[in-house]
Design a protein that fits this description.
Elements: H1 13-77, H2 97-103, E1 114-116, E2 121-125, E3 139-142, E4 145-148, E5 151-156, E6 160-167, E7 175-182, E8 191-192, E9 197-204, E10 225-232, E11 236-239, E12 243-244, E13 250-257, E14 264-269, E15 275-281
Antiparallel strand pairs: 1-15, 2-6, 3-4, 5-14, 6-13, 7-11, 7-12, 7-15, 8-14, 9-10, 9-13
Length: 284
């Protein structure tokens, strides 16, 4: 039997085939890996665009809210003092109680006088008629900002007076008396020139709430009448005779110097009977 010899093969032929196959696999794997990578990049790009759009939208909304609040605050500040409540009627929460006490022989319980403090004292100056003095003095910081300390600054000089407004509290306590209490000289930082000094109390017919943030000498209430004059001295308490004051109404006063060169600088603190305040006595 005769065999036909095969032609000799080069020893490098299998190696070259393997290298070509390996190279082909590498190219295929690169193409396969690049496909999910491109999809991921595309998704990230969409996410970034969406997040940018949301941020821009929120920024525009915030700017619109800031503008709106600024306009609202500006309109509130431009309100005329005394017109804060417009012409709305102040309704009494004690409906028909007066008729009930008038028609029925009820025996009332006895109550001590009420110490009634003004919301704020505001200084006005005749030499600076358009200047608005801040209604509060010392400010105390809290978590949300600043709040006024509960102090009431009575300051009267030949050119400066003080305006205050009280709201009468409680039905059946409608006999009001303006009062002033000053601690002894060694216990206070108050100043009274030519002791005992005298302060004039002028009452105004205004029955609406004053805008203390806009009050000045030029915008003060008009049509006042002299309620009385109150002595001021260290270690003393003085009161004017009582007058009828309807529950729930506003009582507006201006305190002025009664003599040339006078100066009264008295501070009321806390909710106790100190400085200038109003006493309310029981009437039923």
């Amino acid at each position: 039997m005769n065999y036909t010899p095969l032609p000799p093969q080069s020893p490098s032929t299998p190696r070259e085939s393997d290298e070509e196959y390996t190279a082909l696999l590498d190219d295929t794997s690169k193409e396969t890996a690049s496909e999910p990578l491109s999809r991921t990049v595309f998704r990230l790009d969409r996410l970034v665009r969406l997040a940018t759009l949301i941020i821009l939208l929120c920024t525009v909304i915030d700017l619109l809210l800031i503008v709106y609040l600024g306009v609202q605050q500006h309109s509130v500040r431009n309100k005329v003092p005394g017109a804060e409540d417009d012409d709305l009627e102040i309704r009494s929460p004690y409906v028909n109680l007066a008729e009930l006490y008038a028609q029925t022989p009820l025996k009332s319980s006895k109550h001590d006088p009420i110490v009634n403090h003004a919301r704020a004292f505001v200084q006005i100056s005749a030499t600076e008629p358009h200047k608005v003095f801040p209604p509060y003095g010392l400010m105390r910081p809290i978590a949300d900002g600043m709040v006024p300390e509960y102090q009431r600054h009575l300051l009267v000089t030949p050119t400066m007076s003080t305006v205050a407004q009280f709201r009468v509290a409680d039905f059946g306590m409608e006999n009001c008396s303006m009062s002033i209490t000053v601690p002894p000289r060694e216990e206070s930082h108050d100043h009274i020139q030519d002791e005992p000094a005298t302060v004039e109390i002028w009452s105004y017919p205004l029955k609406k709430k004053l805008n203390m943030q806009k009050l000045s000498y030029a915008t003060r209430p008009t049509g006042g009448t002299l309620l009385g004059s109150l002595p001021v001295a260290f270690g003393e308490t003085y009161r004017l005779p009582g007058y009828h004051c309807l529950s729930g109404t506003y009582q507006t006063f201006e305190f002025k110097c009664s003599t040339p060169g006078c100066k009264i600088d008295v501070m009321g603190n806390g909710d106790k009977a100190s400085g200038l305040y109003m006493y309310q006595y029981q009437t039923v």
